[in-house]
Each structure stands twice: as C-alpha cells, then as structure tokens.
Design goal:
9 helices, alpha/beta, about 15% strand, binds 4'-phosphopantetheine, 2 domains
Length: about 190
C-alpha cells in the first residue's frame, strides 16, 4: 500500500522526519508531497524544499519526494496511493486534522487518512517554531537535520555559534552582528 505524506515542509523538521521514518515502516512506499501553495510566501522555494527532504530521507529506500498542487486527494489518486499520513502533536492539531480528514473523505471515499501520534520529544515542534527561533538568533540544531539548520542560518544571516547565549556572553562583540536580511519582513507574514 502506498501512502502520501502531504505538507508544506517549510522547512522539514525532525518531527516530520520521525513521521516519515515510522510511515516507511508501515507502508510499502511513502511519497512525501510538498504542496505548491500560491497563497503563502515560503522561506524556501519548492525546489529547495524538495532537495532538503531528499537529502534528509536518502537513507529510506521506499520514500519518494515530490511536489503537487490542487487537492491532495486528486494527487493521491494520480499516484495510486490509498492513504494520507498526518502527524498529530496535540488536541489542537486534532480538531483541524479531523476536519481535513472528513473533508477529504467527502472528496474521495477511496482515500483513508491515517494519523500517527508525533513522538513525545517533538510534540511542540513545527516549521513555524523553527523559523521563529532562527529569526531571533536562537539555535535550531536540536530541531532540524544539520544541513537544514545551515540553510536556515544562511537565510537569517547568522550561525549557530552566534546564536548560542553561552558563547555570545563570552564573546560580546558577536552580539552586534546583524541577524536579519532585507526580505525578512515578507517572511514574517508567512510564519
Ligand atoms: O504542512 P501543512 O501546511 O500542515 O499541510 C497542509 C496540507 C498541505 C496537507 C493541506 O493544506 C492540503 O492538503 N492542501 C491541499 C488542498 C486540499 O486538498 N484541500 C482539501 C483538504 S482541507
């Protein structure tokens, strides 16, 4: 059975990776599908996100990475997938996710949504949280794969050493280095 794991993945986090890894053990194949959403101003382009996710999941032979637009159930049908995977972190997710699952069921009775409870250590984690921490100079090394952290630090024009309060305390001149890029105003709207 083939499952689709749809989402924005802007950027992929360790919480997403946890769901992908567990999904790949449950299903014959998992397609991580990045929504091309014209209504959002993303931090990373679709191409960048596809590359980031491919690198993150390269150790999982039954995982494919793709992008799509339009309805997720239509994409699932085109890819001959029977399942949509979604992660659940908290009750607040459940309300939105249940509504989405019910909506998708009205669009296609053939597609089932399967919820995986997010592992405890990632129950607070979202792409928005990662971007918020990075924007204000904090370390995100424990929240995303190392190569994604580097990409994000580059976007916000800082590195993890500068963001570490214990280091900035001992090297005060680092605190004066600007942390934001001009396009940041746009990105704040999206977070
Ligand atoms: O990572 P996200 O932003 O929580 O993912 C949301 C996503 C992409 C799964 C959802 O917005 C979606 O499926 N969008 C495609 C449009 C669609 O199918 N809408 C009907 C279901 S509400």
């Amino acid at each position: 059975m083939i499952a689709i794991y749809p989402g924005s993945f802007d950027p992929i986090t360790l919480g997403h990776l946890d769901i992908i890894q567990r999904g790949s053990r449950l299903f014959e194949g998992v397609i991580v599908a990045v929504l091309r959403n014209p209504n959002k101003i993303p931090l990373f382009t679709i191409q960048q996100r596809l590359e980031q996710i491919r690198l993150t999941t390269k150790h999982l032979p039954n995982v494919e990475v793709d992008s799509f637009d339009g309805l997720t159930v239509n994409y699932a049908q085109v890819r001959q997938a029977q399942v949509l995977i979604r992660g659940l972190r908290a009750v607040s997710d459940f309300e939105i996710e249940l509504q989405m699952a019910h909506t998708n069921k009205t669009l296609s009775t053939q597609i089932e949504t399967v919820f995986l409870a997010t592992s405890n250590e990632y129950s607070f984690l979202s792409s928005s949280v990662v971007k918020e921490i990075a924007r204000f100079g904090g370390s995100i090394d424990h929240l995303v794969p190392p190569h994604i952290a580097l990409d994000i630090y580059q976007c916000y024009n800082h590195n993890s050493q500068i963001s570490n309060p214990t280091i900035t305390e001992t090297v005060p001149h680092l605190q004066s280095i600007p942390m934001e890029v001009p396009t940041e105003k746009l990105r704040q709207q999206e977070a």
